[in-house]
Design brief:
Blueprint (H helix, E strand, L loop, with lengths): L1 H6 L2 H69 L5 E6 L5 E4 L14 E6 L10 E10 L3 E8 L1 H51 L15 H51 L3 H32 L7 E4 H18 L3 E6 L4 E4 L1 H17 L6 E9 L2 E8 L31 H11 L3 E5 L10 E8 L34
Parallel strand pairs: 7-9
Antiparallel strand pairs: 1-2, 1-5, 3-4, 4-5, 6-8, 9-10, 10-12, 11-12
Main location: membrane
EC number: 2.7.13.3
Keywords: Kinase, Membrane, Phosphoprotein, Transferase, Transmembrane, Transmembrane helix, Two-component regulatory system
């Protein structure tokens, strides 16, 4: 699997392209060398035969047929290894002189050249060899064949061809190996950047891309990305400081305003004034709930290692939360189903976990119509403890599922319902502290409404106490005690 992914990398494909260009260049070079070498030797052989033919023609013109026969016999006698091939015959192929007995079989070119095999078919007594000859007709109806043994030349050509094939094979193998090694080195560095980037995108903003100190292209890219991350974290911290300070500064006057409105509500006798004062108190409560949620999320994101981590029975905690919300579900005539596996233990902060569980159950009830179904599940999955809430409500579009954990973000269909868009941000912060992962899926995929299933996967307690950490950027905790223990105060709208 890793090899296939390696072959799909752009660096390997670039190395493969380079290999093709390099191999083509080597092939053209070797082909040129072969053409010049083999072509030169073939041309030299043809020139030797042409020279012998010219000499024999000169002898024929000066001494006639008998002189030609004498010259051929002398040359055959001087060449015991039979490197030169001669055959003079009559018009009906009767041998007059030469070192082969009969006319060879082979395809004759228009210029009179023929390639054939020296064997028994031409009366050759030695080992089988290859030959090349020139044929022409002598005046008086005679036929003359003059050639050369080219077996050594053919063997040399085969050696050169074998060397070229091996050279091309070795070149391709080395180029492929080099491309793979180069791609592997490049891919490793890119994978380090990708892995770190994915962890940063998952919220680990304190991480930075490692460098080798070589100041090469990858180090420069990593340095630029790290500086960009530093700037982003700095800006995010500034925004959080501003929003948290505003929430903290406004909470106190809002609390006084709310108390004054409540006193007014108790003192007025006019029904209309009492109704208006009641609405004002409710609006003030909503604003205070929003500020409390902001401050609580800020405190969760900046608390780092929490001192309240204890072994918690997740099924018992969820049972307590369900008892709190069953009545609310009954008021909407909803079916409230529970499947709680016993003995599911995790290490965490019970108050924070209860807040997370309560927010998710409250959201499910809020966004599920009357006579709908709410499902609450606690189970083990491998080494994880899973808390799951499903509903038959309006659901969340796929393109918005990655955004609903942002502060104040609300799905378009739910904007008409009460809420402040902070409940799921708090759920995400609590999950992050407990090293959890949140998964959103449709309860009924393809149906309308699809509903929503929220699954929180957290490490199950295995009997070994672990120090749970977060990697959120550290911010100073807001002053004052703004926490409220009622689970519905920070539920998402």
């Amino acid at each position: 699997m890793k090899l296939l992914s390696q072959l799909r990398t752009s660096s390997f494909q670039l190395a493969l392209l380079y290999m093709v260009v390099f191999a083509t260049s080597v092939f053209l070079l070797l082909a040129f060398i072969y053409w010049r070498t083999a072509g030169f030797m073939t041309a030299q052989t043809d020139e030797t035969i042409e020279a012998e033919v010219a000499g024999l023609a000169e002898q024929y013109r000066g001494r006639g047929v008998n002189g030609l026969i004498t010259i051929i016999r002398e040359r055959v006698a001087r060449d015991p290894n039979a490197k030169s091939i001669y055959l003079l015959t009559t018009d009906d192929f009767l041998k007059l002189a030469g070192n082969i007995e009969s006319w060879p079989q082979g395809t004759r070119s228009e210029s009179g050249w023929i390639n054939f095999t020296l064997d028994e078919s031409v009366g050759w007594s030695g080992p089988q060899r290859l030959a090349r000859a020139r044929i022409f007709e002598v005046q008086g109806g005679l036929r003359l064949l003059v050639g050369r043994d080219v077996d050594d030349l053919t063997s040399l050509k085969r050696v050169i061809e074998t060397a070229i094939n091996w050279g091309m094979g070795i070149t391709l193998a080395l180029a492929l190996l080099g491309g793979f090694l180069m791609s592997r080195s490049t891919t490793r560095r890119i994978e380090v950047i990708n892995n770190t980037s994915r962890r940063i995108m998952n919220g680990h903003l304190s991480l930075r891309i490692p460098t080798r100190g070589t100041d090469d292209d990858f180090d420069q890219l990593a340095d630029n990305l790290n500086r960009m991350l530093d700037r982003i974290v700095y800006l995010m911290e500034g925004i959080r400081h501003v929003s948290d300070n505003i929430a903290h500064d406004l909470r106190t006057p809002l609390t006084r305003l709310r108390n004054q409105l409540e006193n007014t509500l108790l003192s007025v006798d006019n029904d209309e004034a009492r109704e208006q004062a009641g609405r004002a108190v409710a609006e003030a409560d909503q604003l205070l709930s929003t500020f409390n949620a902001l401050l609580r999320i800020a405190r969760l994101e900046t608390r780092g290692n929490t001192a309240d981590m204890k072994v918690v029975s997740l099924d018992e905690l969820v049972t307590d939360a369900c008892e709190l919300y069953e009545a609310l579900a009954e008021d909407k005539d909803q079916v409230f189903e529970q499947q709680l596996e016993k003995g599911v233990m995790i290490e965490g902060d019970r108050d924070l976990l209860f807040q997370m569980v309560s927010n998710l159950i409250d959201n499910a009830i809020k966004y599920t119509p009357e006579k709908g179904t709410i499902g609450v599940v606690v189970r083990k999955s491998g080494g994880d403890a899973v808390f799951e809430v499903s509903d038959t409500g309006i659901g969340v579009p796929d393109e918005e599922k990655d955004q609903i954990f942002q502060r104040f973000y609300r799905v378009g269909k739910s904007r008409s319902l009460p809420g402040n868009g902070l409940g799921l941000s708090l759920v995400s912060a609590v999950s992050e502290i407990h090293q959890g992962q949140i998964v959103l899926t449709d309860t009924y995929p393809g149906k309308n409404p699809p509903g929503l299933t929220v699954s929180v996967h957290m490490p199950a307690f295995t009997g070994v106490r672990k120090r749970i950490k977060t990697t959120s950027a550290e911010l100073p905790a807001p002053a004052g005690n703004s926490e409220t223990r009622h689970p519905a105060e920070t539920s998402d709208g």
